[in-house]
Amino acid sequence: MLLTLACGGGRAPAPSMTAPTPPPAVPPPAPNAALAGSWLGRATDSQGDTDVSWSLTQTGDTVTGTVTTQAVNRDDGSCNSCHRNKSGSVSGVMSGTTLTLTMFFAAGVDGDPTPACSATVTGTATVADERTLRGVYSGADTCEGAFANGSLAMARQP
Asked: pTM to 2 decimals?
């Protein structure tokens, strides 16, 4: 009996009747926005304004397609009126509603008014809704230099 008292009485505490609380459920990640289709818009940066056209395809989170740019005023005689008339490729990766993108315009493309010059643009764009996206970018033209403080607004075409 003395041994029983010294060890705390010999009875185990009664088990708790409440079940353990499961951890909160983790919501699944938001699906990637769908960008496949035709888009038109305007880009503005340190070299001026440019009309932009995309034709995009999308597989999972990967976006690819073609891009065409045109100077807003093609007949003003400025460098911008020539260097912004280009065709190239656009590629990117979607993460939810954010597109990380690259546009590349190779030198030597037939019909390019400045065939010796290439250009690369990188940036991010956020899909505001199924018809609109807005973004920022930077880059450079090998003949005209940097594109700084770039902004892009695009609208999906029907």
From this structure: 0.77
Map residue 120 onto helix, strand or coil: strand
Residues 6 or more apart whose Cβ sits within 8 Å of residue 111 = 87
Q: Where do the domains of the chain lie, and which CATH numbers do they carry?
A: 33-156 (2.40.128.120)
Residue 102 burial (CB < 10 Å; 0-12/13-18/19+)?
A: middle
C-alpha 58/C-alpha 53 separation (Å) is 16
DSSP assignments along 38-51, one per residue: EEEEEEEETTEEEE
Q: List pLDDT tens digits, range 57-114.
A: 999 999 999 999 998 876 766 666 667 888 999 999 999 999 999 999 999 877 777 7
